[in-house]
Amino acid sequence: MDIIQKNGNIVLKNIKDFVPKHIFECGQCFRWDLEEDGSYTGVVYDKVINVSLEDEDVVLKNTNVDDVENIWINYFDIGKDYGHIKKELSDMDEYLKESTKFGYGIRILKQPFYEMVISFIISARNAIPMIKRSVNKLSEDLGEHIDTYNGKKYYSFPTVKSLANADIEKITASKIAFRAPYIQKTAKMIEDEDIQEKDFEKLTLDETAEKLTKFAGVGAKVADCIALFGLSKYDAFPVDVWVKRVMEEFYLKDTNMSLPKMRKYSIEKFGSLGGYAQQYLFYYAREKGIGKNK
DNA sequence: TTCCAGGGCGGGC
DNA sequence: GCCCGCCATGGA
Hints:
Layout lengths: L1 E5 L2 E5 L6 H5 L7 E3 L5 E5 L2 E8 L2 E5 L3 H11 L6 H9 L3 H9 L10 H10 L5 H15 L2 E5 L2 E4 L4 H6 L2 H5 L7 H13 L12 H8 L7 H11 L10 H10 L8 H12 L3 H15 L6
Helix pairs in contact: 3-4, 4-14, 5-11, 10-11, 12-14
This protein binds a DNA duplex through helix 6, helix 11 and helix 12.
């Protein structure tokens, strides 16, 4: 991979397995939006960045070489060989072969731990467009104005402190409804106990899930999402409605397996590749509407 | 109008 | 351990 400056933008040359649509629409993130020109603009780490694919190159706008080297290379997981991961999954069965072929440009983003906690609490019993709307409104109301890009204002994700100290009305204003008390409680707990990403570094997935489910509004599925997207626990396998459908369609026809058992089954089946398998399957299932009318 | 969305919680058994 | 009703909101 080479980093080149061109017209004030940064161009990443020779990047494989990187398709913005696949990355930003496979359900892992809520602060990336499609622009009219097909590019995606996102807010991460108090920074606004625009990403597009031009021929074989990844073009990054509104950023600089320092940030690319210090932040975005890591965030986009550029150092990882996703080709190898897809090959291993493809060799397992025809379904994974098809799914990895369909979402061939997916990469799992390394997102901020605490933002994942709050965002996925909001995700419970909610629709993805609504989750995005709520997260953006919450940032507008309780975060900081960090940048204006293409005439649009962008706001940072609210800090732990601002959420912990916010009135409940200020939180419910983001259409977060019955999840608002969960968010307030959890933000307070994170602040009071000074819980940080590094506290999870040496924990197994089960230990991580056990610790995370102590948060209000965090059950098995949300914990797995936080573990996968915010803590780089790649053996996590979040089972949501879509994953349940696609698992039943592909592997567990007419079994009527409970969610905890399906989680255990999948973790054992996919092992260290569980998180990747989950993302390819989720994207495939959701884009194709697998098992929706049953 | 009714159903559903990247579920969790508290209750019951 | 499993199942049930409930939880707001908006889009289809």
